[in-house]
Amino acid sequence: SQKIEQNSEALNIQEGKTATLTCNYTNYSPAYLQWYRQDPGRGPVFLLLIRENEKEKRKERLKVTFDTTLKQSLFHITASQPADSATYLCALDEYGNKLVFGAGTILRVKS
Amino acid sequence: SAVISQKPSRDICQRGTSLTIQCQVDSQVTMMFWYRQQPGQSLTLIATANQGSEATYESGFVIDKFPISRPNLTFSTLTVSNMSPEDSSIYLCSVAEETQYFGPGTRLLVL
């Protein structure tokens, strides 16, 4: 069966450190993978998209890697800040712009 | 990027009643989606709202329970019919360009 797995436990890190979140998938062959941020009581907000032929994508303090052999994406936030605390969701395209979401990882950055 | 609004933002409803959620986009879009996010879980796609034709429902969701309208390219409604406490959830609409943009969500509590 198709599955998307993200760290189920919350990730607690100290301000200034790099946060690394993992997204693993099975039985998908996505053309691209996306990461979203969701704050409590709000809809997800798009952060980054990485295509299957891209190894790495960066945007300011964010970096995403995509390994289609390992079927894994890593999402990094460098120099993390308390304002980065949120739930981070990965999503794969299935077909026709239809996205399938992982359950998300809660990130808590402590000052 | 698209700006999406939803009404109502939240509601408390009695078992057996129905609620219609509105989604308005500030630009014309081809594809609109409705998601459900149950407490502590990720987003589950309910259906794709097609302009000028019937919505396309995902496995486990049926039109009688979640009727959808899409009268034009900027607006859609989702009705949650004959509600039960299990329908308590956040309902989100989204639009797809290359990435998806989400509305703020409608938080529904069914007593």
Structure, described:
The complex is a heterodimer of chains A (111) and B (111). In chain A, 0% of the residues lie in helices and 57% in strands. By secondary structure, chain A is mainly beta. In chain A, strands 2, 4, 5, 9, 10 and 11 form a six-stranded mixed sheet that branches. Chain A is globular. The mean pLDDT of chain A is 92. Chain B has a single domain (4-110), classed as Immunoglobulins (Immunoglobulin-like, Sandwich), CATH 2.60.40. Chain B has strands spanning 4-7, 10-13, 19-25, 31-37, 43-49, 56-57, 68-72, 75-80, 89-96, 100-102, 106-110. Chain B has no helices and eleven strands. The interface between A and B is medium-sized, with 19 and 21 residues.
- Helix amount of chain A: under 10%
Report helical residue fraction of chain B: under 10%
> Termini separation of chain B (Å)?
37 Å
Proportion of residues in β-strands of chain A? over 45%
Tell me, rounded to a whole number, the average pLDDT of chain B. Answer: 93
**Mind summarizing the main beta sheet of chain B?**
7 strands, mixed
The total of beta strands of chain B comes to 11
Q: Describe the global form of chain B.
A: globular
CATH topology of chain A: Immunoglobulin-like
Order of helices and strands of chain B: EEEEEEEEEEE
Specify Rg of chain A, calculated over alpha carbons: 13 Å
CATH class category name of chain A: Mainly Beta
Low-confidence stretches of chain B: none
In terms of quaternary structure, the protein is heterodimer
Give the uncertain stretches of chain A in residue-range form.
Answer: none
| Head-to-tail CA distance between termini of chain A | 41 Å
CATH 4th-level superfamily of chain A:
Immunoglobulins
Task: Give the class of chain B from helix and strand content and strand pairing.
Answer: mainly beta
Give me the CATH fold name of chain B: Immunoglobulin-like
